[in-house]
Design brief:
Elements: E1 4-11, E2 14-19, E3 34-35, E4 41-42, E5 51-56, H1 63-76, E6 83-89, H2 93-103, E7 109-112, H3 118-122, E8 126-127, E9 132-133, E10 136-140, E11 146-151, H4 161-169
Parallel strand pairs: 5-6, 6-7
Antiparallel strand pairs: 1-2, 2-8, 3-4, 5-10, 8-9, 10-11
Length: about 170
């Protein structure tokens, strides 16, 4: 049974339960299996040797998630080829593709946790009550060590974009 962290975060002020461990700076990034589309799956090793900024959102079809993903799309264009920006949600892959097309988002890689929720459980962001992944940011270096973590205390708040980007730039 996976670890549960009751009251680790809130949704509109109401406590929610996160499933999985609370990762910390210095931890080895856990592996995951995410859907790139309905057929192709990827894991951490598919991004070996790259600096990874992992932006986790509950659903691209909400205002804060939309703004977060658009912001990291802009930032991704300025970070260079050694950095990959991954946006993870439980949205279906074709919904992610539709949203990216409508939003003009083309520099982040959207990945879906809808099949197994393995990312959510391994990174401690799976919301038990909603079966969505909690808003969070992880920066993982080229050797797959976590160098920055931000678990948002409130699901509807935005992450600290400046600190996340500074954490990536510190690795360049």
């Amino acid at each position: 049974m996976a670890q549960e962290r009751t009251g680790a975060a809130t949704f509109k002020g109401n406590p929610i339960t996160l499933i999985g461990p609370e990762l910390k700076v210095g931890d080895q990034a856990p592996d995951f299996t995410l859907s790139k589309n309905l057929i192709e799956e990827v894991s951490l090793k598919d991004y070996a040797g790259k600096i990874k900024l992992i932006s986790v959102v509950p659903s691209l079809d909400t205002g804060v998630c939309d703004a977060q993903t658009r912001r990291f799309n802009v930032e991704a264009g300025e970070l260079g080829d050694n950095v990959v920006v991954l946006t993870v949600s439980v949205d279906l892959p074709f919904a992610q593709e539709r949203w990216c097309g409508a939003a003009g988002v083309d520099r982040v890689v959207t990945l879906s946790d809808y099949k197994t929720r393995s990312f959510g459980e391994n990174y401690g962001v799976l919301i038990k009550e909603f079966q969505l992944d909690m808003r969070s940011i992880f920066v993982v270096d080229a050797e797959d060590k976590i160098t920055y973590v931000e678990y948002l205390p409130e699901m509807t708040e935005s992450p600290n974009f400046e600190q996340a980007i500074a954490a990536v730039k510190a690795l360049l």
